[in-house]
Write the structure tokens for this entry.
Amino acid sequence: MRTDKQLLVIAHLSQLITLVIGFGSLILPLILWVTQKEKVHQMDAHGKNIINFQLSLIVYCIICVPLILLFGLGLLGFIALGIIAIIFPIINAIKASNGETPTYPLSFNFIN
């Protein structure tokens, strides 16, 4: 196994691809994780954290849809999720470049 901090940073920042092309925040990190988890040291842990975070965001978005009917609470939820989906990948990319194994807040453990 090789150590590749740059690839770990790219894996975290790949979640932001949605801002550019409109989709892929789950697909691109999933491809990176599946193809590199056996080759790059710590990619398995980082990839699991990223995938769990993206799946959690999907669950939270599904929860926000019916909340739109309740006084616009769903819209506030979507705004909060959008901010979280941008800020935490950047913060965790910085942590990954420093050699830390970052975690994402409010993530469910779909993949252990």
In short: Residues 43-67 form the longest helix (25 residues). DSSP finds five helices and no strands in the chain. The chain has a mean pLDDT of 94. The CA atoms of residues 14 and 93 lie 10 Å apart.
